Amino acid sequence: MNPDEVSSILSIQPTSVQRKGERNADRKGKIYSLSGWFLSTEGILESRDARRHLDWIIEKVKEKKVGFQEFHTRGYLVDMCIRWNSKSGHGGPTLSPKQMSILADLEVELWFDIYVGTLEE
User: Is the pTM of this model over 0.70?
Assistant: First the structure.
């Protein structure tokens, strides 16, 4: 799906997009094989609590169920990723029941990208 169409359906502007067939500026010569629409807290929130980042995103999308149903009907992947850095590998991200309920209602999968030993003090 064209990222502009996603923005139109959700009435939300993304923090970044990628368009199929365009060059990836971060990877020399690489061409995007898929389009993507992204909403990120990077540079917006400084909290180390994954719940705060998830709350920020949920607040933007929680009333957009019809839009998410449209994406699912068309067969598009709709997911959310939380990057989690840990100094020692202990602890971990926590989700509240309310967050899980909203994501389930929107039929959005959530996954974690976990990096151990990478947290800077």
Answer: yes
